[in-house]
TrEMBL record:
<dbReference type="InterPro" id="IPR017850">
    <property type="entry name" value="Alkaline_phosphatase_core_sf"/>
</dbReference>
<dbReference type="Pfam" id="PF02995">
    <property type="entry name" value="DUF229"/>
</dbReference>
<protein>
    <recommendedName>
        <fullName>Sulfatase N-terminal domain-containing protein</fullName>
    </recommendedName>
</protein>
<dbReference type="InterPro" id="IPR004245">
    <property type="entry name" value="DUF229"/>
</dbReference>
């Protein structure tokens, strides 16, 4: 019979912060419900969209049609091969809910949907009520509205249709590590009600996050950097799967300590409905996406899994002197690179210069096609605006000349707040980099 999937996510919550702040929910999930928590679940891109896109499409954003706002010829997100479309084709009822319309993953930087993407879509509701900074709407906590919406969806279709529900809470955990503890009792009530009420008999429950803390005091520590890369990801299998396919639980448990990623979550969601995506990049070597219901090899590397050096939590880094020539070269290169990105908007954004290098480290030198290279990860502060950036720069040496390239994303590890408001409407891709010439910040 058809297996339903319910996903319940919390923004910016590392595995360890979930354990710290929601210990009773963690216990209930793991001990009573038998959740498997993936300890090697590693992000593959920046921010929420950098998690949702691979998880729901199996692709990097760069592999899909351009859906960025304010870009020429960009399309609506409707063109994305989102996995819920496959669920819908199989007769599933579908739901997509996010609580902060201003921060919505497919709308903040991307163009959003032209047509309603799922049978149940909460965005109009949040637009209709006043999106204030409060955690409640009138007398009801907003997170309770999110929990109820998911639960009512599950119950409404219980006897008629299988379900795919994807609910994601941002407000409660986006800006502060600690506030999420306020949801614990309500989360426990939700889990208990669903589990003890036998409403999850044919349903896989995924409680998860997109990434850990992306900015703030904690993010300035090594611990914070690791936690950003290792979000919470837990999977509860229904008894029907455990009984009929005992190897699935065994494989999932063995994968808990292997390197995994949002691409594997995609393969897992596809596996549930037996969907094989003909558009996925053909593996030239080990597959990038492996269903978590099959065995992930123990010797899997970040490269195998499609995890860029910048995001890989497995690498061994060695500190190098931040004032040394290598670090300074890389830092100056990074500033030039960022200035080049904002170059078309010099009338709006300041040119940045290097204030200092706060941290620098190098990975073991290696070679690719006979060319020696070193990856350097660096944290810098620029002025004006005191932005903190963290980037990984790929350095090859040839004929005595260093050639530098920025690998994948640049992380902005302190809050930009209103610093880049002037560029928001012109090019939201530059929010991380632009320090506006206006004095509104
Ligand atoms: Zn996020």
């Amino acid at each position: 019979e058809d297996i339903s999937v319910l996903m319940l996510g919390f923004d910016s919550t590392s595995r360890l912060n979930f354990m710290r702040k929601l210990p009773r929910a963690y216990d209930y999930l793991t001990k009573t419900m038998g959740a498997v928590v993936l300890q090697g679940y590693n992000i593959v891109g920046d921010a929420t969209a950098g998690a949702f896109i691979p998880m729901l499409t199996g692709h990097f954003e760069s592999e899909l049609p351009n859906v960025q706002r304010k870009k020429k010829n960009s399309q609506f997100v409707d063109v994305y091969p989102l996995i819920w479309k496959q669920y819908k084709k199989k007769g599933y009822a579908t739901l997509f809910a996010e609580d902060m319309p201003g921060f919505a993953a497919f709308n903040l930087r991307l163009k959003g949907f032209k047509e309603q993407p799922t049978d149940h879509y909460m965005r109009p509701f949040w637009h209709a009520i006043d999106e204030g900074p409060t955690f409640c709407y009138r007398s009801v906590p907003k997170h309770v509205m999110m929990f109820d919406y998911l639960k009512e969806f599950q119950l409404a279709y219980e006897s008629s249709r299988p379900r795919f529900g994807f609910t994601f809470l941002t407000q409660i955990s986006h800006d502060d590590l600690n506030i999420i503890e306020l949801v614990e009792q309500d989360l426990l009530d939700l889990l208990r009600g669903m589990y003890e009420g036998r409403h999850l008999e044919d349903t896989i429950l995924v409680v998860f996050s997109d990434h850990g803390p992306r900015y703030g005091n904690m993010r300035e520590t090594l611990q914070g950097k690791m936690e950003e890369r290792l979000p919470f990801m837990s999977i509860v299998l229904p008894d029907s799967i455990k009984h009929n396919h005992p190897e699935v639980l065994k494989n999932l448990q063995s994968n808990a300590e292997k390197l995994s990623s949002p691409f594997d979550m995609y393969a897992t969601l596809a596996d549930v409905i037996g969907h094989h995506d003909p558009h996925l990049p053909a593996p030239n070597g080990p597959p990038r996406a492996i269903s978590l219901f099959t065995k992930i090899p123990a010797n899997r590397t970040c490269q195998d899994a499609g995890i860029e050096t910048h995001w890989c939590a497995c690498l061994q880094w060695k500190s190098i002197p931040p004032e040394g020539s290598v670090a300074m070269n890389v830092a100056q290169f990074l500033v030039r690179h960022i200035n080049a990105l904002t170059e078309p908007y010099t009338s709006l954004c300041h040119r940045l210069s290097l204030l200092n290098v706060t941290h620098a480290e190098a990975a073991e030198p290696d070679d690719q096609n006979g060319i020696a290279y070193t990856d350097v990860q660096i944290t810098i502060v620029t002025t004006p605006g005191q932005a903190q950036f963290e980037a990984t720069v790929h350095m090859t040496q040839r004929l005595g000349n260093n050639s530098l390239t920025v690998t994948s994303d640049i992380s902005r590890i302190n809050k930009y707040g209103h610093q880049s408001d002037c560029v928001l409407d012109q090019n939201p891709e530059l929010r991380k980099y632009c320090f506006c010439r206006t004095d509104k910040h």
